[in-house]
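cron nightly-structures :: item 1 of 1
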Amino acid sequence: MKTNEGLPLVKFMMLLSSMAPLFLLVGIRGMEAVVSENHLWIAVLLLLIIPFIIIKLRIHFAVKSNDVYVLDVSETKNNKEYLFTYLFTVLLPLYSVSISDKREFGAMIFAICFVIFVLWNMNLHFVNILFALQGYRVFTIESFDSAILLTTRSTIPKNLNEMKVHRLSNTVFIEIKKYDYAN
């Protein structure tokens, strides 16, 4: 299997959907000096809904086309620290930003683009609040030349070696059905 990311649109949509809390925060804080309230909320809702729908469509097509892989999960690491990285690199620095003119708006857009660039290159694009609310957790599986991300609702026991998962991209996989591996 190639370890380049593949499906860059899906990866970008995963990254945008992981920034959903930031978009909501911007909508709540408002930007009356730059854009009307109605236009802002339309943009925020589109930034929330479109990525989630595209990811759900990718999952649907992965299931429909049986895009299944057997992953070696003998060496997994739970990515709880990604949540802290996410909070401290995305939400907290931009929380205190007030947007009262076009220059501050431009600075905020630049900051968001920089955060997207960092998260894209660090492969931290699947910290997704909507999936987390559904019980999914993200695990890293070390591969011979890269890291693979697995999102699952299951608890992965230490003695488990393989899992059948669906491919979202070449380095992001999802276990659709929750299994009880302890039994």
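cron nightly-structures :: done
The mean pLDDT is 79.
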